[in-house]
Amino acid sequence: MQRRSLVYSVLGVAIAVLLIAFPLATHSLAQRSTSASPPLRNLVQEFDPVIMPEATAYSVFTTNPDTPHQVWYRISGGDALFRQRLRVFVENASPRPQNQLPPESALRQEITTNAPTGWFVFPSETGIFTYYFDGDHRTTPNSPWENAFGLKVKRTRFSNGNLYELGFEDQASLDDYNDLELQVAIVQPS
Model's pTM, two decimal places? Predict the structure, then answer.
């Protein structure tokens, strides 16, 4: 009887450890940081910046579900009056309407600064995926996070993907779109 209790206790502890460790391991494998740059090749076209005064987030998505793709991103800086936050979501689905984010369960990273970072890289995937980049701000350490008031997007097309330069605005006056700046690359050979 004591041996059975001991076995059940050990099994209970092992199950508890697995239940705690698996979500943590899955989250930590969602992306990795690197000093390398995205392997974009052969500049094809640079597009003029587009201002999106109503946007609070931006999404990039796959264009060919049969070809593997990889998404890279980094905070490149920012000149902000307020505290900044970047949240990155990934969903195995087509894009949602503008400013509609996936559920919190799709959140893969949250960075609460606009200080430059190294590149973060998601594992290579095949299929329909959408990656959401949400820029928020708050005026004090204890105030709630608020959505950006708009963003500016500049796209550069390469032979094997696109580079997006995003600039979020944290004031309703929409002055400079440089409060939280990031670069996002989706590498997907044609």
Answer: 0.81
